[in-house]
Write a structure and sequence with these properties.
Rossmann fold; two-stranded antiparallel ribbon; ferric-chelate reductase (NADPH) activity; flavoprotein; disordered N terminus; endosome; transmembrane; 53% helix
Length: 488
């Protein structure tokens, strides 16, 4: 080992001031790559601080421009230089504009220093803007001699701090300058993110609106779930609570928080699961009817097909809640009182054995099939996660979501049939001439399962396979290889 260390090297401080009186600082013995471009950041907010940390960790030299450097110098890592906006703009090769769009006009005096440089606009609006212009386009008009790139606005400060492994890895970029977009693309990869090229700067309006949407693909499935829950809950309330109170004066309103909800949840879960596979059957029937796959589906059917994942997850939520509610049923005081009263009644009437084979078998099969249905639904839900779906190929994903999905639907349907048993044929179950809930719920899943069985017939499946491989009923499609011309 070489212990020959010069005294001057030992006395040299790691951190030195850049310009006394300005509160700026930088790391002289930096771990940054000396050939790496200097990255400037305009602004000292939460996003700016997180961005500076991520850039330093990625090996870049970072300089932050602030109107009051002394006030914010302690908030940034020691490797980051905090200085005035003019000096930061002069030093930086690439500048992040991390200030609110209404304050962009305060940077106009930096035009000479920012001329010919790349500006990255990370701002978002306060509401969805459909008319334009975007913040990035306004910034480009304000700095015509600079190249503006829209990006990093969909990445949160938290994701920048903890790294892309715990958040979204995609960074959407757009710009009218291919060279500027290429340099920002390289910067994204160095930081550990995945750049997504969205084209020219005219796409910036779409990128700025992305963080403002509130579950756009979940709106219809959630409304559908809530609507079905309200409908089935009111139906069960009238059937199981209101009818006994009106006809015989029995006060069964205590059933509303637990029992009525527990009967409603599986009804919603089964109908929602049927709605996952019904649009696929309708699309297959439409292709068979038209004899081609090249005609677009109706818009409603197309949107329905794209929301099947959300419908399935809503079904899984209701099924899980149903399982939890069912486990809590014996914990209620009303259930214990009912059990004690039944025991006293049997002793009073001299009943020695109340065992009924049919009821015992029904309950055993009912619970077993329900557990299997919930297990398959859990597998479908886990596989729908992007991190899990990326580990399987398309055939495996299709097998789980389609084949096992239909198995889950069949198990859930059988679970409901075993719950109903022979009560559908009992006239006393039709309160106010209303059939039991399970009889109504079974209609849609039975239609879906029967439709699936019809499409599995050889004549139907063969025709559908031909259509999906490009065959058309109206004309004969013939595939030919191009002629090979030999040059002598």
């Amino acid at each position: 080992m070489n212990y020959n260390i010069m005294p001057d090297d030992m006395a040299r401080p790691l951190i030195r001031g850049r310009g006394e009186g300005r509160g700026s600082r930088c790391l002289e013995a930096s771990m940054c790559d000396p050939d790496a471009p200097v990255i400037g950041i305009m602004g000292t907010g939460d996003f700016s601080r997180s961005l500076a940390r991520r850039l330093v960790a990625s090996g870049y030299q970072v300089v932050v421009g602030s109107r009051n450097p002394k006030c914010f110098i302690a908030l940034f890592p020691e490797e980051v230089e905090v200085t005035s906006q003019m000096e930061a703009a002069s030093q930086a090769d690439l500048v992040f504009v991390a200030i609110f769009p209404e304050h962009h006009s305060t940077l106009v005096e930096l035009k000479p220093a920012l001329a010919g440089k790349t500006l990255i606009d990370v701002s978002n609006g306060i509401r969805i803007n459909l008319d334009g212009p975007s913040n990035a386009e306004l910034l480009a008009d304000m700095f015509p001699e600079s190249s503006v790139v829209k990006g990093f606005n969909t990445i949160s400060a938290w994701t920048l701090q903890v790294g892309p492994r715990d958040g979204s890895r995609q960074v959407f970029l757009c710009s009218n300058s291919s060279s500027a977009k290429s340099s920002v693309t390289q910067l994204c990869r160095q930081m550990g993110f995945v750049p997504v090229d969205m084209g020219p700067l005219s796409s910036s309006l779409e990128i700025e609106n992305l963080p403002l949407y509130l579950f756009p693909s979940w709106r219809v499935p959630v409304i559908c779930t809530l609507g079905l829950f309200i409908i089935f809950y009111l139906y069960n309330f009238i059937h199981d609570v209101l009818h006994p109170f009106v006809t015989s004066g029995k006060n069964l309103f205590y059933k509303m928080p637990i029992e009525v909800v527990n009967v409603t949840l599986p009804s919603v879960a089964l109908v929602m699961l049927s709605l996952v596979y019904l649009p696929g059957l309708l699309a297959a029937c439409l292709q068979l009817w038209l004899g081609t796959k090249y005609k677009r589906f109706p818009d409603r059917l197309d949107r329905w097909l794209t929301r099947r994942k959300q419908l399935g997850l809503c079904s899984f939520l209701c099924a899980t809640l149903h399982a939890v509610y069912s486990l809590c049923l014996p914990m209620r005081k009303s259930a214990r009182f009912k059990l004690v009263n039944m025991a006293f009644k049997q002793v009073k009437e001299g009943v020695e054995d109340s065992w009924v084979d049919a009821e015992v078998w029904r309950m055993e099969l009912y619970l077993s099939v329900g557990i299997m249905a919930l297990g398959l639904l859990s597998l479908l839900a886990i596989t729908s996660l992007p991190s899990v779906a990326n580990t399987v190929n398309w055939r495996e994903f299709s097998f789980i979501q389609s084949t096992l999905g239909y198995c889950a639907l069949a198990m859930a349907t059988l679970h409901t049939l075993l719950f109903g048993w022979n009560r559908a044929f009992d006239a006393s179950q039709y309160h106010f001439y209303m059939p039991p809930t399970f009889a109504l719920v079974l209609i849609l899943p039975l239609i879906v399962l029967l439709g699936r069985l019809v499409l599995l017939l050889p004549c139907m499946s063969r025709e559908l396979r031909k259509i999906r491989r490009g065959w058309e009923k109206t004309r004969h499609i013939r595939f030919t290889f191009p002629e090979v011309v030999s040059h002598v």
